Amino acid sequence: MGPVTAKFLGDLGARVVKVETQRRPDESRAFVPFRDGVSGFNRSLSFAHYNSSKYGICLNLNHPKGPEIFKRLVAWSDIVIETHRPGTMGRWGLQYEELKKVKPDIIMVSHTMQGQTGSMANQPVHGILFQAQLGFPHLTGWQDREPIVPPTPYSDFIAPFFVFVAIMAALDYRQRTGEGQFIDISQSEASLHFLAPVLLDYIVNGHGQSRIGNRDSFLCPHGVYRCQGEDRWCAISVVDDEEWKSFCRVLGYPKWKDDNRFATIWQRKRNEDELDKLIEEWTLNLTAEEVMKGMQAGGVAAGVVENGEDLLDKDPQLKYRHHFRELAHTEIGTYKCEVPPFRLSKTPIDITMPPPCLGEHTEYVCTKILGMSDDEFVKLSGEGVFG
Amino acid sequence: MSQQQGQTSKENMLAPYRVLDLTDDKGFLCGKLLADLGADVIKVEKPGGDKSRNTGPFYHNIPHPEKSLSWFAYNTGKRGITLNIESGDGQEIFRRLVEKADFVIESFPPGYMDGLGLGYSALSEINPRIIMTSITPFGQDGPYKDYRTSDLVSSAMGGLIYILGEPDRAPVRISSPQAYLFGGVGGAGASLVALWYRHIAGEGQHVDVSIQECVLWSTYYEIPYWGERKLYKRAGNWAPRMEIVYRALFPCRDGYINYRAYGGAMFGPGQANLVKAMDDEGMDVGNLKDVNWRERGIENTPQADIDHFEGKVRQYFKQHTKAELLELSMKWNFMLSPVNTVKDVVAYSQLEERGFWAEIEHPELKDTISYPGFYFKSSAVPQRVKKRAPLIGENNEEIYAQELGFSRQELAILKQNNVI
User: Is 0.95 exceeded by the ipTM?
Assistant: First the structure.
């Protein structure tokens, strides 16, 4: 859940040092897929995707000298981000109070599933499971079927955006006041803002919402329709009667458009199943791209249900905006990496640094950034501090 | 900084800054986050109020522009004025507001603000330090820039829904809108990056946020898989890993549990503990006790063994409720999560213990409502969600009369002419 935030900072020009150990590398180094299907800590495309623009060092914090070296890094840093279970940093003597002694205005961010306090703070859990505890699967899927658990750790990708906001606000605060701070951020508390209206609906109305497929409680038609080809789909939403007219025009004024069953939003809502069938009879004869372009030309919101290939290789918009940048990595070779989802007119993003191999920059960071002598580095290496 | 340069406040992180928030639901969360962080966010609505005030569900199910719960949820902490920026007088007033503002955030179609003479280049002439953040479905440029969207369409084009759902039905979205929220929180972060640059360079800039690209950040495996020319597909609650499939969802006595027999370094130790827990309750776990799960990742376990283990897990979960299983997972140190309903989430004790919920007064409803509260704890400046979303034109008097110095007479003229 941590790497995205620091990747954004790195892609924007900050110098980011990722701290791992040989014995316990970042877990996502073991995540599929691996380049050419050959596993290895430096071959995971999942890891690569979230760790561009970072230096990588190995530093064993369980070694007696590990925490001391870490503190030298802290003295050089502006921000420390960590995602260990609550209490872990303290056991190394690296809690905020200690880091502050080394760097009084340090900004330390502890990003955990449920925060530093409370009886569930130490629940043993990973994001791929934990999203269920926040209600996302309950609200995903079809009314007549069991909930769908997203195959990705969904809330792990909401929270980093919030962490990023917190860090940037803390940097501004430090700039103006000279003060750093400790930030205790809970993935639950950040991610639940993505369900705020649903929570309020329960709190004020006692109404517990559940999954409703692709329907919308207030709009119709509103669905994902099968198109020509294998597993190709187009999403369409019609927001009002005006758009319904446009929608019918795009479909070439089908006979059924004047049916009593579909003339008004009330009637369409009542006969939604039938309407969806009729729409799909039309979309089945067209490609998803044709449906999207036709609808958009007529002023109706519609879009291809994009898969990995669409996103990486086909979508002309993402291409135009250079959302993916090609990076060259020593073990992976070239691969396409995402940049942060915004462009700044005066400070364009230019990422050039591929994700680090495990321990790739240990020597560089120690000698060039921390200013260790070669002798000291060799001595510490020999003692296993960088293991 | 809008007020005296360098003035700071111990109360709020972004206290010195003013934000003019012209967004519709595509950008509400951006201004809300800045407001919760202490910025003075002024929501600028067209006379009569923003269209999204008509979005349900509503307070006590009464459809009314002052009772939309999504409006409530995503506009906390903001002040509110009405202003018709399509009229000449409205534009003049807006320019005066920009003189004293730090940020303008907007989510109109690309080119709309330029068309009104209120684009970034025009605003930066009035105030070179202004940061203008545009949150749009596909960004300011490119072949899709004028495309229309909805939550469903943005979720589709951002790649989120292709991976959700079951193979025998259409891909499916998350039933509560998500896409614009990624745009909103992405916009807030990007705006603050521009603020940081302003500290360094002394000038503002235009920030262009694409909702599609923000959503894309939530899709995870889809991109790395296609990096290996493999399509990552929806598989319901079955998860494929190499040649093996395993379940993610198991029924329990009062609902469902998200559990994965994943093994290996991350999940293995917990798996061994789960076997101990089953054994402790007298279940026949056979030789499962002897398996070294840490060494045994899902990819080197035969499918039959996975099925056998999952069968035992199913049997165990069936005997317990969600709450019991969560407690057992804490006691025995194994990993699972109950598939919580909305009611469960609201009742979840951890949130209460950490003081997550914010009690917000709604004097005109004679009610106090619990809101999702501020999302992090700061040692320097405790933040909180401070006040409810603005009513239509609630702060017109404050801004127009007290701050800009319009007389009653002038205000009446502006009102009559539908400017405010």
Answer: yes
Instruction: Tell me B58's DSSP state.
Output: B
Residues of chain B found within 8 Å of residue A78, distances taken between Cβ atoms: none
**A37 contact partners, CB below 8 Å, separation of at least 6:** B228
- pLDDT tens digits, B328-376: 999 999 999 999 999 999 999 999 999 999 999 999 999 999 999 999 9
Query: B147, B223, B172: which is closest to A235 by C-alpha?
Result: B172
CA dist list (Å): A101 to A74, A96, A291, B272: 10, 9, 61, 41
Tokens 């479909």, residue?
A251
Among the listed residues A60, A92, A89, the one whose alpha carbon sits nearest the alpha carbon of residue A381 = A60
Sign of CA dihedral B276, B282, B284, B287: positive
Residue tagged active-site, from A144, A156, A350, A374: A156
Whether B35 and B72 have beta carbons less than 8 Å apart is answered as no
Nearest to A173 among B227, B338, B380 (CB): B380
- The number of beta carbons lying within 10 Å of the beta carbon of residue A384 is 12
Q: Is A33 in the B-facing interface, judged by CB distances under 8 Å?
A: yes
Mutant choice from B60, B218, B362, B374 vs A, greatest count of A C-beta within 10 A: B218
Disruptive mutation site among B262, B354, B365, B381 for chain A (greatest number of A CBs within 10 Å): B354
Distance of CA A123 to the CA centre of its chain: 22
With beta carbons under 8 A apart, name residues in chain A contacting B59.
Answer: 204-205
Sign of CA dihedral A198, A201, A204, A206: negative
Question: CA A29 to CA A358: how far, in whole Å?
Answer: 9
Q: What is the pLDDT of residues A124-138, one digit of tens each?
A: 999 999 999 999 999
CA distances from B227 to A152, B85, B235, B258 (A): 17, 46, 20, 28
Please judge whether A217 and B56 are an interchain contact, meaning their C-beta atoms are less than 8 angstroms apart.
yes
Q: Which amino acid is at B145?
A: K
The structure tokens listed for B58 are: 């509503």
In one letter, which amino acid is B345? V
- C-alpha A113: how far from chain center: 15
Q: Please judge whether A49 and B223 are an interchain contact, meaning their C-beta atoms are less than 8 angstroms apart.
A: yes
